[in-house]
Write a structure and sequence with these properties.
alpha/beta, Beta-Lactamase, 16 strands
């Protein structure tokens, strides 16, 4: 026991001795390990920067030797300074700010770090939008094969930015209007509603207008006379089509750019929102060998897209399909598409008369604008051709009145017309922010009286995805008027039927559209306010 106690007394003394030796060993090391690690990391970083200088494109070839020597001493500091200088230079000659230019320069430096990163950014570079005229020339080539001044480069970049932003926000139209002598406004029509996006000074905005007119094949010097044109835009493998109209206005010149629907060629009636019974009726009418299907509605109601969807219901390998359009909005496979050009004396009537001699089975007429086109189309429907056409009118009854007002014979209308399709576009509620509708007691009582289930009704909210509008995308509602034998006999009566048609037919057409829209409201797809705005 005495020996054990002696040992226990000696242990603390030995422990203190070991701690003292350890402390002496630490203080006697000839270097600091942390500093050594930092030094080694700095050397490797300098060597890596020299490699980037030799392999990258940030520094010209003749200066790479000097830059490599400087990198051995300064490491990444030289690359950082060069990136900052390049960002400043780019921000001065483009509409991008300094931070955006700095981000692009840093992105370019990262492209040389890893192949995967480079491939990702190359894909992003391919997404840059390029404006192209009808002959395939870009804006750079139109302005002198890229040898333009910094001011021109800024204007071209700003023009492409305006168009790219409109595509990104799903706009159907770009409107550039003078507000006063010093300011222009840029507005976008998104889901049928105009939205102001920016205001620009007069000089840069006039330069943007001139750029668009140049790429559209319009006369830049002419600012008062109305002009029409068209151009394309390419982003990677995707091509967009645009239709341009200009006119002189107070305080300057206004420009309207219509963005054509590039997906119209693959759209189906189901995609547009047509019900099962409506789709069945349209397909049944499309299978007939002759007759006319007339699509009517106001401007911007999607008539051409619906006509494309109808053409997608037939087998275009077995039937010869020819379209006459102004302009061609989308490419339809196995279809002969002809574009109207009034300047070259290629009108709807003359082209339609020529097409009838080309053994067609189905003819698609972009728009009936005059008596000659209407008569030729209806006579073609009588002679064994299926004719699809659009006309600007409010309802199916109004379409018949419009044909009669154009001077078309009632007998010709009754014998050639098979189906009239009236349509409207309703904005869809944003799925992220829509909320249950708060109905008043009067509205609830009215719905209960008509036995309408209002439990699924929703109203618009606000979120970033829909730009706080509460709506995202649109759906179509249709009213189908079948021109059967009893109606053909009534149309043939002429003026006696016309009086009843103006009074009863228009009211009935609106009622049918309202019923179709109410089904969308009950399903929570759109709101009651949107239905009232569109249909009334």
């Amino acid at each position: 026991m005495a020996d054990f106690g002696t040992v226990m007394n000696l242990l603390p003394a030995q422990a203190d001795g070991l701690a003292t030796l350890s402390a002496m060993g630490q203080t006697s090391l000839p270097f600091d390990p942390a500093r050594l690690i930092i030094l080694i990391a700095w050397v490797y970083l300098c060597m890596y920067c020299v490699q980037r200088v030799q392999l990258g494109a940030l520094i010209p070839e003749r200066h790479k030797t000097t830059a490599s020597l400087v990198c051995l001493l300064t490491g990444p500091l030289l690359l950082l300074v060069l990136i900052l200088i390049a960002a400043v230079q780019k921000s001065r000659r483009s509409p991008l700010g300094f931070l955006e230019s700095l981000r692009e320069q840093a992105r370019g430096a990262m492209m040389s770090v890893h192949p995967d990163v480079a491939a990702y950014y190359r894909d992003e570079e391919n997404s840059v939008l390029q404006l192209i005229d009808s002959s395939g020339r870009t804006l750079d080539e139109i302005y002198g094969h890229g040898e333009w001044r910094h001011e021109d480069a800024k204007v071209l970049d700003l023009t492409e930015t305006v168009v790219a932003d409109a595509i990104r926000q799903r706009a159907s139209d770009i409107l550039i209007d003078p507000r006063d002598e010093s300011t222009y406004s840029v507005r976008l029509r998104i889901d049928g509603i105009l939205r102001s996006v920016k205001e620009l000074q007069t000089e840069p905005c006039r330069a943007i207008i001139n750029s668009v007119k140049a790429v559209s094949g319009m006369d830049i010097a002419e600012r008062r006379r109305p002009q029409d044109g068209a151009f394309l835009a390419r982003r990677g493998d995707v091509t967009y089509s645009f239709r341009v109209a200009s006119a002189g206005a107070l305080n300057g010149e206004k420009l309207s750019i219509r963005i054509l629907n590039k997906d119209a060629g693959t759209t189906t009636l189901r995609d547009l929102g047509a019900g099962r019974k409506q789709r069945t009726l349209v397909v049944k009418t499309m299978q007939k060998p002759s007759g006319m299907i007339l699509v009517c509605g106001p401007t911007g109601s999607g008539k051409t897209t619906t006509m494309y969807a109808m053409l997608n219901t037939i087998d275009r390998y077995e039937r010869n399909v020819i379209t006459i359009e102004d302009p061609i909005e989308a490419i339809l496979p196995e279809t002969s598409q002809i574009e109207v050009n009034p300047r070259a004396d290629i009108t709807f009537a003359k082209t339609l008369r020529s097409v009838l001699r080309q053994d067609p089975d189905v003819i698609c007429v972009g728009e009936i604008r005059d008596e000659e086109t209407a008569e030729i189309a209806l006579r073609g429907a009588q002679t064994g051709h299926l004719i699809l056409a659009t006309i600007h009118s409010d309802t199916g009854a109004a379409a018949l009145i419009r044909l009669l007002d154009l001077g078309v014979s009632p007998l010709l209308i009754s014998s050639g017309l098979n189906l009239i399709v009236t349509q409207r576009l309703l904005r869809c509620l944003c799925p992220r922010c829509k909320q249950p509708a708060e109905l008043s007691d009067t509205q609830i009582a009215q719905f209960d009286q008509k036995r309408i289930d209002h439990s699924g009704m929703c109203e618009a909210g606000q979120c970033k995805d829909c730009h706080r509008t509460g709506y995202f995308g649109r759906t179509a509602i249709y009213d189908l008027l079948v021109v059967d034998e009893p109606m053909k006999a009534q149309i043939a009566q002429g003026q006696s039927f016309l009086a009843r048609l103006k009074e009863e037919g228009t009211r009935k057409g609106r009622t049918n559209l309202r019923k179709e829209g109410l089904k969308r409201v009950m399903a929570g797809l759109t709101s009651l306010e949107e239905l009232k705005r569109v249909v009334g």
